[in-house]
From TrEMBL:
Protein name: Unconventional myosin-Ib
Annotated source species: Coregonus suidteri
Tree of life domain: Eukaryota
A Gene Ontology cellular-component term: plasma membrane
SMART domains linked: IQ, MYSc
GO molecular function: actin filament binding; ATP binding; calmodulin binding; microfilament motor activity
Biological function: Motor protein that may participate in process critical to neuronal development and function such as cell migration, neurite outgrowth and vesicular transport.
InterPro entries for the chain: IQ_motif_EF-hand-BS (IPR000048), Kinesin_motor_dom_sf (IPR036961), Myosin_head_motor_dom-like (IPR001609), Myosin_TH1 (IPR010926), MYSc_Myo1 (IPR036072), P-loop_NTPase (IPR027417)
GO aspect biological process, one term: actin filament-based movement
Binding site for ATP: 139-146
Segments forming domain Myosin motor: 46-732
Amino acid sequence: MSQEGEISLGFYIVHQSGFRGQHFQFGGGTADSKMEVKMSLLDNMIGVGDMVLLETLNEDSFIENLRKRFDHNEIYTYIGSVVISINPYRSLPIYTPQKVEEYRNRNFYELSPHIYALADEAYRSLRDQDKDQCILITGESGAGKTEASKLVMSYVAAVCGKGQEVNKVKEQLLQSNPVLEAFGNAKTVRNDNSSRFGKYMDIEFDFKGDPLGGVISNYLLEKSRVCKQPRGERNFHIFYQLLSGASDDTLMKLKLDRDFSKYNYLSLDSATVNGLDDAASFRTVRNAMQIVGFMEDEVQSVLELVAAVLKLGNIEFKPESRVNGFDESRVKDKNDLKEMCELLGIEQSVLERAFSYRTVEAKMEKMSTTLNVAQAYYARDALAKNLYSRLFSWLITRINESIKAQAKTRHKVMGVLDIYGFEIFEDNSFEQFIINYCNEKLQQIFIELTLREEQEEYIREDIEWTNIEYFNNAIICELIEKNQNGILAMLDEECLRPGTVTDDTFLDKLNTICAEHQHFESRLSKNSKFLTDHSLPHSCFRIQHYAGKVLYRVEGFVDKNNDLLYRDLSQAMYKATHSLMRELFPEGNPAKVNLKRPPTAGFQFKASVGVLMRNLQTKNPNYIRCIKPNDKKAAHIFTDSLVCHQVRYLGLMENVRVRRAGYAFRQLYESCLKRYKMLCKKTWPQWRGPARDGVEVLLTDCSVPSEEFAYGRSKIFIRNPRTLFTLEERRRACLEDLATLIQKIYRGWKSRTHFLLLKKSQVVVAAWYRRYAQQNKYQKIKSATLVMQSFIRGWKARNILRQLKYEMRCKEAVTTIAAYWHGNQARMELRRLKTEARNKRAVSVIWAYWQGTKARRELRHLKKEAQEKHAVSVIWAGWQGTKARRELRSLKEEARRKHAVAVIWAYWLGLQVRREYRKFFRANAGKKIYDFTIQRIMQKYFLGLKTTTMSPMDNTWPARPYGFLEGAHTELRRIFHLWRCKKYRGQFTEEKKAVYEEKLEASEIFKDKKALYPSSVSQPFKGDYLEIQKNPKYQKLKSAVEEKVLLADLVNKINRANGKGSPRLFLLTKSNFVLADQKTGQVKASVPLPDLTSVSVSTQSDGFFALKLKEGSASASKGDFLLSSEHLIEIITKLHRIGTTAADRDQINIDISDEFLVQFKQDKVCVKFIQGGPKNGNSAACKRKNNRLLEVSVPSSP
């Protein structure tokens, strides 16, 4: 991986007074006012940032450089493009979002060494150059491999695109880590969170660089840990997390107990680990499984299998003698066996038989043999290991189904390999053998790819390539993996050979075939030089790996390679009704019996490593070598011997030698010229020609010997680090001179600026003084003028007053004379009018007498005509009356005849009724008629009541038909109302009753007191308006609140400064209420309800309310809360109800007033509610009037 050194040329100007100036950038750049300098690989180095630049290369200088950087918290160092990471065993402030932005889109060598630089280089190569990448993370247990892989994934997630779907994919990829760590990590003596499996994740990206999904592969889970753990170590985390973090109800369903000592598979000496909270980790795992996409029934099935493994370890056996003299195993206590069978859905007798008998099939024959106690324990442990390892593989497959890319187009791929490092223990077995074999293969591909990269760069830059001598570990790989004579092939052959097969026969075969191999050592081999080597026990063999010699104890090689599970147990598992068992044990299907032996563990691992190597060779590699500084897992401790041991087996020295075999340093011409151009007058301050010509002029002027460098097509190659350091020293001295020059210029500019400022200030001061003097003089003249004006105006006013008074007296005299004259004239006119009126009256009287005489004559004439007409009318009226009386008499006679007939008919009907009455009602006739009448009346009455509805709200009731039913009518109405209320209440569920009780309590609190209350009656109290239980957006907030959430709503927190509201999430539980940020879900305040003393609201239709806290409490440090909500009635009702039902706290007071006080920190502010006009809209508005008054304008009701 070729890198260019983009070096930032920048510095600060520092005055003697300590003033820090601005950061100046040369080479055409602009001035940067940031108060931080981006340090490059060569600026202010602590030790050497790149091991290739070590002047003296040996183990001592290598270790000393690592120690020096580690002591200064520099945990990352380069070897070219390889990153060395030392575990600091403590948190360092170098992984912040600011650091991510600092390394984003930066050149690899532009900043100080960091894992983010490698992750950014890999991501940009994948995104921009369309090159598939892989990041290989190696190191021994406790070196920080898992954390390094997390940092790489978190960086890539931070710098790639955004969007709802992209964020979901990133979250699923990141959340797969807690699940795999719970089931695949364990506490060891070297590491509290040691990965006990190898993991390779392919992250797939689209053409924009956004993640689409991923695929995870696992290698060699250490399943032997399920049954047995070394002293001081634990089983896998999930067992302890389940027992510590699961609820009592969950443990009861899984038939488990929290006591670790009750389970044989759990070691007790390290059951609890400092710094690990198993209960919290279990909640994290459950949440991560939900985010990844596990269904609830799948999670329950997984936990049932984990519980089954624990129960399986408690099954113990006892011998039972048979007639033929052989011992047969029997289960001691069948309680654990019964509970395990209930968890998995297996018949107890089937599993019990599988632990006691073994069926052997050969061709068409079957033979059943008994198992002794030792074989039964072996079968039990084999079943436990297989069950757990297959469950782990199923988890990997299930996670892959959720995180795999959905698009069918071609994807860009970045692989992250987190695999075990080289292991050398006191007791090394089969697991260490294949782990070290995998590391040999990784070392082989590492050297090959590094050499190929170096050679390609030399050819690309047209630099002569010389062959580099290095140790090729292909001979060790062939010793292990050769098809016929390799150790793995001989182990498989020995496992498949008929007859007695033991670990000793396998060792004998190795001694025979591999005796002459230069990297194989055994005391029993034909090579005589090892016969007297007492450091080599008889039951061991030793291989000289690239990292050193490793002694392997041959005991257990054959059994671990066979990894056999009896067919009876597989078939018993297949018969289970559990949802996962048939998927985990497909070979147990009786319809698909396969007599062929399954592939051995060594064969499977060799095939997996082969696929991994082919996969890695198709990608551009990036390496992270993790080193553990000490065995105590403590900070600030650097053990030289331990680090030296890891440097050797990681092959770091070999890597440095390969890297610096030709030229130790190379850099683009543009970058080199930009960094060192100030060393030559011809190139400073700006070179106008090609960059290569500028570098040639620069090196010639600096008198650098020609054998110390070579010119490539685009880069300058420097052979010796000493040459580079000489250039750096000269550059540093030149920068000091330039800084002095700039300081001189800056100080001169500052002095001139200061002088000009003083001069300008003097002119301004003089102008202001002259203005001030003139203003004073003007004020004095103005005052004198005003005094003189006032005296003159007074004299004029008095003269005018005297003149006006004289004129007024003259006008009054004229008015009096005119009044007397007008009075005389009026009296004369009055006398004239009276005379004229008397004359007119005499004429009117005469005219009236004449008109009366005329009218009386007309009246006598009219009376005479009327008398003549009246006589005719009287005669006609008499004749009409006679005719009418005759007709009346005729009608009366006819009516009398009809009435007589009706009377006779009525008498006859009465006679008939009396005869019938005497026939049927001889005795008690009156009572019977009364009873019959009453019965019919009551029937009709009750049928009339049938029309009444069953609604308790219906107040209608039929009117009583008869007065004697008054008492019964009222009592029936009361009884019927009580009965239908009871029927209506019987339909209520407990949840509905609680809602109506809250509605009733809200009525008692707010009815006729709060104008908002009537509109809330028809709205049901929902409680959780945010759906916090279902919405994945609030999972973090849900995990922070441990109790059941009674109410979750969005409210506005009113700011005292401007009266505006900020959206907050309001959560109410039985013991406290919580305010959280709407976007991030971060908890802003959590207040215990005992600290809440009262709630204040207004009488109007607004949603404002104040939560007043107890003075002196911890929650009251920032003052009370003024909030607004659309569900005010429900919030305050629930608060009041919680305070009423709780016996350990006082009842919360509800204050309903249009003016109340709210405590904000140290000040009390009055909140006043007023009626607003139409301009205020439909919602209440809060405004700040002054420092002590907030005014809420509430729109008037229509």
